[in-house]
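Researcher: Structure prediction, please.
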Amino acid sequence: MIVVLADDLSGAAELAGAALRHGLSAEVQTVFTAVATADVVCVATDTRALPAGHAARIVGAVTREVVAAGAGWIFKKCDSVLRGPVLAEARAAAQAAGKSRIVILPANPSRQRVVRDGTYFVAGVPLHATLFARDPEHPRQSSQLLELLGGDLTGVETPNAESAADIQRHAASSDDSTLPVGGVDFFEALLQLRVAARTSPPPMPGTNGETLIVCGSAASWAQRQAEALAHGIPEFALPHEPGAILSALQVANRVLIGIGDGSATRGQSSDALVRRLAETVRSVLVRTTVVRLLMEGGATAAAVLHAAHWTRLEACAAADPGIGVLRPAAGAGPLLFVKPGSYVWPPDIWPGRA
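Model: Predicted structure follows.
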């Protein structure tokens, strides 16, 4: 069993999708359990927004459980632009797993996210000059890896990576004493080196059926509204009326719901708003059958899973890189499409009118 420790649900889903594309079975868990039979188990610790000390204690405890369960090897997934207490979590995981070397490689050249001379670039632009500088929770106001990580980097390596070849070279140098920490490109390179593919990836399911699209980002809401309008999809922002959402779903077969950016969001914490959104999703799910549930952002997806009492999900299709396609392990429930908030929905994922 290979275990991925991810600081949010979208990261766990993304790497489960990568494992599936490599021909391995994969499962996403919000509470680690060793009973899983999947080749790859991706545990979402939901620690990105926590203080460093609190996050480290959680990650350390989960890592000890994973080691006791006999994991073959461990990969620590971090945000690709190093949001959250990345260094504290990496140190906690390395200590619990008995690793003396940490390699933090967040670059994803496949998505034009590279590290050159210790500076992070997104599509050729220094990180601090991109939209990530205005992230409401973790503004990226520096492009220097050392400043983004902070703290003592003794025993920690932060190599440059501008190409797939760079990623592959760093993967080849990661031995049993190393805790690899990074993004999906690093994980895929390690899989290619260490594990033979076992099956062909399952095909993507069809796009027919009732679809609920969930947007928990105020920053993305205007774009999602525009996309919904272009596809003839009704949209609802807070405050929600579940009855109206259900009626629209019956007529249009697709509905977009989100926090929005109206007066109902003023003066409330992002956590409270996401919980309200998740309760709306739960209310819809218990009152009608939803075939596809599209969610963006790890915090949004985690809140929905918590409200629905789903703790184990099976990776069941290989979608576009960055998209996890999951189904509740119990077998009942919609097909879940999960992506990081900073990625766009691919054209073949975003649903048109049925």
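Model: The two ends are 40 Å apart (CA to CA).
Researcher: Thanks, that helps.
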